[in-house]
Amino acid sequence: MQKNLREIVISAMLAALAFVSMLLIRFPMFAPFLSYDPKDVIIIIGGFLFGPLAAIYTIVVVALVEMITISETGFWGLLMNIISSTAFVIPAVLIYRWKRNLAGAVIGLIVGVIAVTGVMLLWNYLIVPLYVPHVVRADVVPMLASVFLPFNLVKSALNAAIVMLLYKPVSVALQQAGLYQPQAAAPRGRINIWVLVISAFVVLTLILIILAERGVF
Question: Are 60 and 84 in contact (CB under 8 A)?
Answer without folding.
Answer: no
